[in-house]
């Protein structure tokens, strides 16, 4: 699978200069969009995702209304210029629906739903640039936009992925690393307690032993990412 391409050099560095457990440097900007209740743009080297939140507001769709908690919906758009090749902007594709479903799952796990009975939160995510791990970036941006909208939440979220490649465990994979078709674990933790997992999924077959190693490495890297980057951005926005 990876024998023809060296993803980690003999010096222990990945192609972009990071060490295997390092995440990309993240730039977090709140309030980047108008005419919404909250927004956040997350930029990570060649990846850029913008999320906006409308709500909580009284729902106009009776079928989606829930008398005892808020309804959560999400729409994802992938810009024509997001990937390495320009293509038509994508809405309602399998990829965008998978990202939307993951965002909703995480949001429903972290938001205090019962605080907003009969209401709706609508999240819009636009993937402007994509260098791999777009689902991870979408989840992080959406949850940070909820913070900007002052939605009641159990905690902030820190989401990332991990994979075993060239006998190393890599964190926060790039598009090039993902093209190796390695098996990937994607996981979202609560920021202040990375022992608490709110969502995870796997792509490919992963043995129990490797899964345990990936999860432990992801947890350690998530703590560093949250403490050194996400938490500081949250504190600066207050």
TrEMBL record:
What is the residue range of the signal peptide feature? Answer: none
Annotated region (Disordered) at 1-22
Which Gene Ontology terms describe the biological processes this protein takes part in?
Answer: nuclear mRNA surveillance; poly(A)-dependent snoRNA 3'-end processing; rRNA catabolic process; U4 snRNA 3'-end processing
Cellular-component GO terms for this entry: cytoplasmic exosome (RNase complex); nuclear exosome (RNase complex); nucleolus
- Provide the Exoribonuclease phosphorolytic domain boundaries: 22-151, 155-220
Which regions are flagged for Basic and acidic residues bias? 13-22
Tell me a Gene Ontology molecular-function term this record carries. Answer: RNA binding
Write out the similarity annotation: Belongs to the RNase PH family.
Q: What is this protein called?
A: Exosome complex component RRP41
Organism this protein belongs to? Strigomonas culicis
């Amino acid at each position: 699978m990876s024998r023809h391409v060296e993803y980690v050099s003999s010096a222990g560095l990945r192609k972009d200069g990071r060490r295997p457990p390092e995440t990309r440097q993240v730039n977090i900007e709140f309030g980047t969009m108008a005419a919404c209740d909250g927004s956040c743009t997350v930029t990570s080297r060649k990846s850029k995702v913008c999320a906006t939140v409308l709500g909580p507001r009284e729902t106009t769709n009776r079928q989606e209304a829930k008398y005892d908690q808020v309804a959560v919906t999400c729409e994802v758009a992938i810009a024509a210029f997001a990937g390495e090749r320009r293509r038509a902007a994508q809405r309602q594709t399998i990829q965008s629906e998978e990202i939307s479903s993951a965002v909703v799952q995480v949001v429903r796990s972290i938001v205090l739903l019962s605080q907003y009975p009969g209401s709706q939160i609508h999240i819009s995510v636009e993937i402007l640039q994509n260098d791999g791990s777009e689902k991870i970036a979408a989840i992080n941006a959406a949850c940070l936009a909820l913070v900007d909208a002052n939605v009641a939440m159990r905690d902030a979220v820190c989401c990332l992925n991990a994979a075993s490649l060239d006998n190393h465990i890599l964190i926060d994979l790039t598009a090039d690393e993902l093209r190796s078709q390695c098996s990937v674990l994607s996981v979202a933790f609560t920021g202040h307690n990375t022992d608490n997992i709110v969502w995870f999924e796997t792509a490919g077959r992963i043995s129990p032993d490797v899964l345990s190693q990936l999860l432990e490495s992801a947890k350690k890297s998530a703590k560093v990412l949250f403490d050194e980057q996400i938490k500081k951005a949250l504190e600066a926005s207050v």
